């Protein structure tokens, strides 16, 4: 068995000598190929550290059913291992080598890179599949990159994954909700499907824990082990870590100031800065464009945002090689922390925080909370600076604060709302989810709350079985259980066309653009008021989409009214795919012809668990959990008279607990449409 303790190595420049003969400074494992690089793609592949372990990897997969592959960042495991398997003949019998990624951008960019290395068009030998987008051929694709949620839905049609010969779970250390579910399910599948092989890959992971989880050998005879660990050394240049002496009151402003210092005093090299969310990224980009002065005569700035809801075409801009005479500044969320390599990054700025989803079983709310990063995440961020040459990482917190951070980020399974995950497990035949073998078992109260919510929505019956057809159809929708319920019953309310538009728009963040100059800010606010209605944010989004379609989906029209054209394009694509799913479930696509009450009643029937009422103290409180809430300043209701009852889509924790994406409802609708909830759930003591 191959094993060793593999940890990211962050050294001071000069503490070790770089081997210039083995490292090509112009090489990067970026996924957008630079035609000016002198080495051929084949030579680049052979210079990757994982190449030296090619035969070991193939041998271990022949002998063991599960390989836990621990490889330092930059070793090439995500791009090369699937190719080694294909070259060794694993896909010759018509089966597929599947690779799962926790992030959509990682799945698409990795597929692009590997397709280029194989000399084929994307979607032929190498393809990808993500939510609401795919590019693969069911017959000819041999290597398929996908998100874990896609593979989970494929299991509903083929529980034993008989179309696959090897499954590779990549970036397991992120421990997303679906990563843990996939590991639990694959452990069961491997017992039945002896010909299926599993590769569990990560840069930083507890290899022994995964080895013990997947090893089915209960005897002391190690020759009967079904799992094995292998470590691969990575190519990581030394990274000089810098800490601040005093805490920063505004880390967004701190990022901007640090970029300014780097640009004025550091030699050429691109910059990657980490912030917590889209709003902070957009704010930093605006501040940089306003404040930065190109004092460096040799370099001009190319400032690019990067976050999950950005359209794919916009995300891919950061992977393009930086033109001569420019310095690329990438302002990103933790989407750029792992899985993807942005070429040319030499300087990293770490704000020290990350936005995580956190479920409170006391109040039954799933909130986005800004929390300090873990030490493992901080090391991953710093490692982005050491991919092409010696780099520097600027941490906007002190060294003492770093030492006080938690070692790892808690698994998502233990901190998020589990209703949709439980629904999908039940669709896969896991009747007793409380006894399902999770790598990191979730709190029992979270499971209890999730099952109660599914019962309230009518997705499961009192015996815990999926209802037909509602529960089964909800499990197949790639949306939250509340949204899928609203969509599936929208035909009964006669407003499925409107609900489709609203939920498609909810998948796109920041439909309204935020100008940086003073005069345009006023114009943008006036333009937004043209779409606002007293019924709330969801009906406002519906107005935007209807107007967008009415005006021929014109980019000029979007620019005139300060709307995100690419976001609206994406919403239209998502709407088309969701409408196809509805047709498959025999839900008629019909319009209510402007009857807003029908739309609001349908929203109420799906989102009633997210009801809040105006307390006599002047704040809102949730019906479930009695949590104190406030209307978010971006809501159209923020400046209006406070309605007595609201439904919210999301909760955000900052200095207060805010509700976002609101809809005004009539309390009598709650009594009528949520009667199943009140009569059967509360009375049966489901703790909701």
What does the oligomeric state look like here?
single chain
Mean pLDDT: 84
Number-wise, the strands total 21
- pLDDT < 50 stretches: 1-38, 676-688
Count of all domains:
3
According to CATH, the fold-level topology of the largest domain is Rossmann fold
Distance between the termini: 49 Å
Label the structural class: alpha/beta
Assigned CATH superfamily of the largest domain: P-loop containing nucleotide triphosphate hydrolases
- Main CATH class of the largest domain: Alpha Beta
> Measured on Cα atoms, how large is the radius of gyration?
26 Å
What does this structure look like?
The chain is of the alpha/beta class and 688 residues long. The chain folds into three domains: 41-232, Rossmann fold (3-Layer(aba) Sandwich); 239-412, P-loop containing nucleotide triphosphate hydrolases (Rossmann fold, 3-Layer(aba) Sandwich); 477-510 and 526-538 and 572-682, no CATH class. The protein has 24 helices and 21 strands. An eight-stranded mixed sheet has the order 4-3-5-2-6-7-1-8, with helices on both faces. Helix 14 (444-456) packs across helix 24, helix 15 (470-476) packs across helix 16 (481-493) and helix 17 crosses helix 21 (565-584). 49% of the residues are buried. Mean pLDDT is 84; it is low at 1-38 and 676-688.
């Amino acid at each position: 068995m191959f094993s060793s303790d593999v940890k990211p190595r962050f050294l001071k420049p000069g503490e070790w000598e770089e081997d210039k003969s083995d490292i090509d400074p112009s090489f990067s494992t970026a996924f957008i190929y630079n035609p000016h690089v002198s080495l051929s793609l084949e030579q680049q592949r052979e210079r990757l550290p994982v190449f030296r372990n090619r035969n070991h990897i193939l041998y271990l997969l022949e002998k063991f059913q599960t390989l836990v592959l621990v490889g330092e960042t930059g070793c090439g495991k995500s791009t090369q291992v699937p190719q080694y398997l294909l070259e060794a003949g694993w896909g010759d019998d018509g089966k597929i080598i599947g690779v799962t990624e926790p992030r959509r951008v990682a799945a698409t960019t990795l597929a692009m890179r590997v397709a280029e290395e194989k000399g084929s068009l994307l979607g032929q030998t190498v393809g990808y599949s993500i939510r609401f987008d795919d590019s693969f051929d069911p017959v000819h694709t041999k290597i398929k990159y996908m998100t874990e949620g896609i593979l989970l839905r494929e299991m509903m049609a083929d529980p034993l994954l008989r179309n696959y010969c090897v499954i590779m779970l990549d970036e397991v250390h992120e421990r997303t909700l679906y990563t843990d579910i996939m590991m639990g399910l694959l452990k069961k599948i491997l017992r039945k499907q002896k010909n299926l092989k599993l590769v569990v890959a990560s840069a930083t992971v507890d290899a022994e824990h995964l080895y013990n989880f997947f090893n089915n050998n209960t005897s002391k005879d190690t020759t009967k082990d079904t799992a094995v660990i292998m470590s691969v050394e990575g190519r990581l240049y030394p990274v000089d870590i810098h800490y601040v002496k005093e805490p920063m009151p505004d880390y967004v402003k701190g990022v901007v100031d640090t970029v300014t210092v780097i640009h004025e005093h550091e030699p050429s090299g691109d910059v990657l800065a980490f912030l917590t969310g889209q709003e902070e990224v957009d704010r930093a980009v605006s501040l940089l464009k306003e404040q930065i002065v190109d004092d460096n005569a040799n370099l001009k700035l190319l400032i690019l945002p990067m976050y999950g809801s950005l359209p794919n075409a916009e995300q891919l801009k950061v992977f393009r090689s930086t033109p001569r005479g420019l310095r690329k500044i990438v302002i990103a969320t933790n989407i750029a922390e792992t899985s993807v390599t942005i070429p040319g990054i030499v300087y990293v700025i770490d704000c020290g925080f990350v936005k995580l989803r956190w479920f409170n079983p006391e109040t039954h709310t799933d909130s986005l909370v800004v929390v300090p990063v873990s030490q493992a995440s901080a090391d991953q961020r710093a490692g982005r600076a050491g991919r092409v040459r010696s780099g520097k990482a600027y941490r906007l917190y002190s060294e003492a604060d770093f030492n006080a951070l938690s070692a790892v980020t808690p698994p998502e399974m233990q901190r998020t709302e589990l209703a949709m995950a439980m629904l999908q497990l039940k669709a896969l035949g896991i009747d007793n989810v409380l006894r399902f073998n999770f790598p990191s078992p979730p709190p029992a109260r979270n499971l209890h709350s999730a099952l109660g919510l599914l019962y309230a929505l009518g997705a499961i019956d009192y015996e815990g079985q999926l209802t037909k057809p509602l529960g089964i159809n909800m499990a197949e929708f790639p949306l939250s259980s509340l949204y899928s319920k609203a969509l599936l019953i929208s035909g009964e309310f006669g407003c499925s066309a409107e609900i489709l538009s609203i939920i498609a728009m909810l998948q796109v963040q920041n439909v309204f653009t935020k100008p940086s100059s003073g005069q345009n800010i006023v114009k943008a606010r006036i333009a937004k008021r043209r779409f606002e209605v007293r019924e709330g944010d969801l009906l406002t989004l519906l107005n935007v989409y209807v107007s967008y379609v009415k005006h021929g989906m014109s980019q000029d029209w979007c620019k005139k009214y300060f709307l995100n054209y690419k976001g609206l394009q994406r919403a239209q694509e998502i709407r088309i795919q969701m409408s196809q799913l509805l047709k498959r479930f025999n839900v008629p696509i019909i319009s209510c012809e402007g009857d807003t009450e029908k739309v609001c009643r349908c929203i109420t029937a799906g989102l009633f668990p997210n009801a809040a009422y105006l307390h006599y103290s002047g704040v809102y409180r949730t019906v479930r959990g009695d949590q104190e809430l406030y209307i978010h300043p971006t809501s159209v209701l923020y400046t209006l008279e406070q309605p007595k009852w609201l439904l919210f889509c999301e909760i955000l924790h900052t200095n207060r607990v805010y509700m976002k994406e609101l809809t005004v409802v009539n309390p009598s609708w709650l009594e009528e449409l949520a009667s199943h909830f009140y009569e059967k759930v509360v009375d049966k003591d489901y703790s909701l």
